[in-house]
Amino acid sequence: VLCRLINSLHPRGQAPVAKIQASAMAFKQMEQISQFLQAAERYGIAATDIFQTVDLWEGKNMACVQRTLMNLGSLAVAKGDGLFVGDPNWFPKKSQENRRVFSEDKLKEGQSVIGLQMGTNRGASQAGMTGYGMPRQIL
């Protein structure tokens, strides 16, 4: 199923998994999982986001398997090449670059503004402060 999934995200004739085998032998099934993982990495999934073959085969780390499939879905939706068929709302939306270009005048104008992040000292005083190390008087 995973190999058919990754093949469906590629144009016809460019499927990364050429031969999908339906074998009951454990070694062949694990080989198919490994082929899916290699194809997913070539598709663009980061190596740190890909589960290990034994995670799925032994069923011990299904959260990692789910994370890989969610990342694959998000990437397929973000590519927007028309090969993803399904509801794009199932997957978290990948962030995309939103480059902005400012004129030289606008950049110079920003250098003279003190932003609110800098804070202000209006209303600041040391009234009521005691020396460090002195106990607080609670009456």
From TrEMBL:
Pfam families: Calponin, CH. GO terms for molecular function: actin filament binding. GO terms for biological process: actin filament organization. It comes from Melospiza melodia. Residues 1-76 form the Calponin-homology (CH) domain. GO terms for cellular component: actin cytoskeleton. Belongs to the calponin family. It comes from the Eukaryota. This is Transgelin.
